Each structure stands twice: as C-alpha cells, then as structure tokens.
C-alpha cells in the first residue's frame, strides 16, 4: 500500500507505521496470551445449555495460564498486565465461593460430578465441597 503512494511525504508516514520483526513477535505473543482468554470465554458461551459448571475450571485454567506466563522471560513485557489480570481473576474466583450454585452445578454435571474436585482440589477443600452440597440439600 505504501509503495503505491505517489507522495513521498505520505509514503514515509505509511512506511513509519510498518511493524518491525520484533514488534511482530510481540503481536504473536500477545495473541497467544489472548487465546487463553478466548478458550475460557467460549466455555461460558452456549445457546444449547447451561455452562455454569464450567465456570470454576475455566477461571482456574486461565489463572494458571496467565500466572505461569507472567514469570517467563519470554513474556516480560506483558508481566505487569498478566499479574493484574490474574488478580482480577482471583476476585471473580472468590465471588464463586459466595454462591453454592457453582459447586452444585459442577456436582450435578453428569460428565464430571465430583471428579474435578477430587483431581484438582486439596482434600480439605473437597470436604468443603461436600459440606456445601449437604447444606444445600438439607434446606
């Protein structure tokens, strides 16, 4: 596009906007980081059924992905943003503890039931899950 411009002044401005190889590398890294958010967002999006049972695993996966990358030298330029994003994800994750709906939705999911909690959570939190379910069903 820039090479077709007849005005040298305009062509110089267009050429100035071209990304360097290093900038393209950063664009690639950024799109890589955003792909994790896209996967998490897709877990929450469905017009065919409930996705509440996917909320906790999606938040945990996204948090782990971004937190681990914040520590890698390759992503140094993005470390502050990744840490801030992980902090925000922590806030949303903490909100799930205020509502038993997330845990109950996961327990009622016939494809997983309690398996996710057994695999990914320590035993003391597994006890909390069971207590939560007992309390909900006592009412």
Shape: elongated
Unreliable parts: none
Structural class determined from secondary elements: mainly alpha
Helix fraction, binned, reads 55-70%
Oligomer: single chain
Total helical segments: 7
Distance between the termini: 68 Å
The overall strand count is: 0
The SSE order reads HHHHHHH
Give average pLDDT, whole number. 90
- Radius of gyration computed on alpha carbons: 22 Å
Largest sheet descriptor: none
Beta content: under 5%
What does this protein look like?
This protein has 139 residues and is an all-alpha fold. The chain is built from seven helices and no strands. Helix 2 runs antiparallel to helix 3 and helix 3 runs antiparallel to helix 4. The longest helix is centred in the N-terminal third of the chain and has 23 residues. The protein is elongated, with a radius of gyration of 22 Å. The mean pLDDT is 90. This is hAT-like transposase RNase-H fold domain-containing protein. InterPro entries: RNaseH-like_sf.
In short:
The protein is mainly alpha-helical and 139 residues long.
Would you spell out the secondary-structure blueprint of this structure?
Elements: H1 8-16, H2 21-43, H3 55-70, H4 79-96, H5 101-108, H6 115-120, H7 123-138
